[in-house]
Protein backbone atom coordinates (compact mmCIF):
# COMPACT_ATOMS: atom_id res chain seq x y z
CA UNK A 1 0.00 0.00 0.00
CA UNK A 2 1.29 3.44 -0.89
CA UNK A 3 2.25 5.85 1.91
CA UNK A 4 -0.19 8.50 0.62
CA UNK A 5 -3.48 7.71 -1.14
CA UNK A 6 -5.49 10.48 -2.78
CA UNK A 7 -9.20 10.20 -1.89
CA UNK A 8 -11.15 11.72 -4.78
CA UNK A 9 -14.92 12.27 -4.62
CA UNK A 10 -16.70 9.01 -5.52
CA UNK A 11 -18.83 9.65 -8.65
CA UNK A 12 -21.64 7.41 -7.31
CA UNK A 13 -21.74 8.93 -3.80
CA UNK A 14 -24.25 11.74 -3.18
CA UNK A 15 -22.66 12.91 0.10
CA UNK A 16 -22.74 16.72 0.36
CA UNK A 17 -19.17 16.87 1.66
CA UNK A 18 -17.15 14.25 -0.19
CA UNK A 19 -19.44 12.78 -2.83
CA UNK A 20 -19.04 13.29 -6.53
CA UNK A 21 -22.74 12.77 -7.35
CA UNK A 22 -24.19 15.87 -5.67
CA UNK A 23 -24.46 18.91 -7.94
CA UNK A 24 -24.55 21.27 -4.96
CA UNK A 25 -21.95 19.38 -2.93
CA UNK A 26 -18.45 20.41 -1.91
CA UNK A 27 -16.66 17.47 -3.64
CA UNK A 28 -13.88 17.47 -1.04
CA UNK A 29 -10.64 15.63 -1.80
CA UNK A 30 -8.44 14.28 1.00
CA UNK A 31 -5.17 12.40 1.34
CA UNK A 32 -4.87 9.22 3.39
CA UNK A 33 -1.46 9.25 5.11
CA UNK A 34 -0.83 5.57 5.89
CA UNK A 35 2.46 6.20 7.70
CA UNK A 36 1.01 8.65 10.25
CA UNK A 37 -2.53 7.18 10.14
CA UNK A 38 -4.17 10.51 9.46
CA UNK A 39 -6.44 12.08 6.87
CA UNK A 40 -5.48 15.49 5.49
CA UNK A 41 -7.32 17.91 3.21
CA UNK A 42 -6.21 21.29 1.87
CA UNK A 43 -8.92 23.70 0.78
CA UNK A 44 -9.75 27.26 -0.14
CA UNK A 45 -13.47 27.33 0.65
CA UNK A 46 -14.53 30.41 -1.31
CA UNK A 47 -17.28 32.89 -0.48
CA UNK A 48 -20.06 30.38 -1.17
CA UNK A 49 -19.39 28.83 2.26
CA UNK A 50 -19.13 32.00 4.33
CA UNK A 51 -21.28 32.88 7.29
CA UNK A 52 -20.40 36.54 7.20
CA UNK A 53 -17.51 38.93 6.93
CA UNK A 54 -15.40 36.63 4.77
CA UNK A 55 -15.33 33.84 7.35
CA UNK A 56 -16.55 30.25 7.02
CA UNK A 57 -20.01 29.38 8.34
CA UNK A 58 -19.84 27.41 11.59
CA UNK A 59 -21.79 24.55 10.05
CA UNK A 60 -19.22 24.25 7.25
CA UNK A 61 -16.41 24.15 9.82
CA UNK A 62 -18.25 21.30 11.59
CA UNK A 63 -18.77 19.54 8.24
CA UNK A 64 -15.05 19.72 7.37
CA UNK A 65 -14.08 18.23 10.73
CA UNK A 66 -16.77 15.54 10.44
CA UNK A 67 -15.62 14.60 6.92
CA UNK A 68 -11.93 14.35 7.89
CA UNK A 69 -12.74 12.30 10.99
CA UNK A 70 -15.16 10.07 9.08
CA UNK A 71 -12.44 9.21 6.56
CA UNK A 72 -10.21 7.97 9.43
CA UNK A 73 -12.49 4.89 9.59
CA UNK A 74 -10.65 3.70 6.45
CA UNK A 75 -7.69 2.66 8.61
CA UNK A 76 -9.95 0.16 10.41
CA UNK A 77 -11.63 -0.90 7.13
CA UNK A 78 -15.08 -0.26 8.56
CA UNK A 79 -18.14 1.85 7.78
CA UNK A 80 -19.09 4.06 10.71
CA UNK A 81 -21.54 6.89 11.30
CA UNK A 82 -21.20 10.00 13.42
CA UNK A 83 -22.80 9.48 16.84
CA UNK A 84 -21.43 12.59 18.58
CA UNK A 85 -19.56 15.62 17.32
CA UNK A 86 -18.26 18.58 19.30
CA UNK A 87 -16.50 21.58 17.80
CA UNK A 88 -14.31 24.15 19.48
CA UNK A 89 -14.26 27.31 17.35
CA UNK A 90 -10.98 29.03 18.25
CA UNK A 91 -10.46 31.66 15.54
CA UNK A 92 -12.34 32.75 12.40
CA UNK A 93 -11.66 30.62 9.31
CA UNK A 94 -11.11 32.86 6.27
CA UNK A 95 -12.89 31.59 3.15
CA UNK A 96 -10.32 33.02 0.71
CA UNK A 97 -7.19 31.50 2.32
CA UNK A 98 -5.96 27.91 2.24
CA UNK A 99 -6.74 25.80 5.28
CA UNK A 100 -5.53 22.34 6.30
CA UNK A 101 -8.05 19.91 7.78
CA UNK A 102 -6.77 16.83 9.58
CA UNK A 103 -8.42 13.81 11.22
CA UNK A 104 -6.92 11.14 13.51
CA UNK A 105 -8.03 8.26 15.69
CA UNK A 106 -7.52 8.50 19.45
CA UNK A 107 -8.99 5.14 20.49
CA UNK A 108 -11.43 2.35 19.71
CA UNK A 109 -13.69 0.73 22.31
CA UNK A 110 -15.99 -1.98 21.02
CA UNK A 111 -17.90 -0.50 18.09
CA UNK A 112 -17.01 3.09 19.09
CA UNK A 113 -14.23 4.95 17.30
CA UNK A 114 -13.05 8.12 19.05
CA UNK A 115 -11.57 10.63 16.62
CA UNK A 116 -10.16 14.14 16.63
CA UNK A 117 -9.86 16.79 13.96
CA UNK A 118 -8.22 20.14 13.47
CA UNK A 119 -8.46 23.00 11.03
CA UNK A 120 -5.26 25.01 10.69
CA UNK A 121 -4.24 28.10 8.75
CA UNK A 122 -1.46 27.98 6.14
CA UNK A 123 0.97 29.03 8.89
CA UNK A 124 -0.13 26.16 11.16
CA UNK A 125 -2.29 28.15 13.60
CA UNK A 126 -5.14 26.01 14.96
CA UNK A 127 -8.46 27.64 14.02
CA UNK A 128 -10.91 24.92 15.10
CA UNK A 129 -10.84 21.53 16.82
CA UNK A 130 -13.32 18.70 16.79
CA UNK A 131 -13.92 15.51 18.71
CA UNK A 132 -16.16 12.77 17.46
CA UNK A 133 -17.53 9.40 18.42
CA UNK A 134 -18.32 7.24 15.42
CA UNK A 135 -20.16 3.93 15.66
CA UNK A 136 -19.14 1.05 13.40
CA UNK A 137 -22.12 -0.22 11.41
CA UNK A 138 -20.38 -2.75 9.14
CA UNK A 139 -17.03 -3.93 7.78
CA UNK A 140 -15.95 -2.15 4.57
How would you portray this structure in words?
With 140 residues, the chain is mainly beta. The longest helix has 14 residues, at 58-71. It has one domain (4-139): Hotdog Thioesterase (Thiol Ester Dehydrase, Chain A, Roll). The strands form two sheets. Strands 1-2-3-7-8-9-6 form a seven-stranded antiparallel β-sheet. Strands 4-5 form a two-stranded antiparallel ribbon. The model has no long low-confidence stretch (mean pLDDT 96). Helices cover 10% and strands 47% of the residues. Strand 8 (112-121) and strand 9 (126-139) form a beta hairpin.
Lay out the secondary structure:
Blueprint: E1 4-7, E2 30-33, E3 38-43, E4 50-52, E5 55-56, H1 58-71, E6 78-89, E7 99-109, E8 112-121, E9 126-139
Q: Write down the Rg.
A: 14 Å
CATH topology: Thiol Ester Dehydrase, Chain A
Which second-level CATH architecture applies? Roll
Mean pLDDT: 96
Largest sheet: 7 strands, antiparallel
Structural class: mainly beta
Task: Please tag this protein with its features.
1 helix; 140 residues; mainly beta; 7-stranded antiparallel sheet; two-stranded antiparallel sheet; Thiol Ester Dehydrase, Chain A
Amino acid sequence: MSDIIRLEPNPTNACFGCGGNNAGGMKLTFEQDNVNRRIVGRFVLGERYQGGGGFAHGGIIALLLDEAMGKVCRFREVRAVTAELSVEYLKPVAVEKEIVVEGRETEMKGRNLFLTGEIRSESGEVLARGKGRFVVISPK
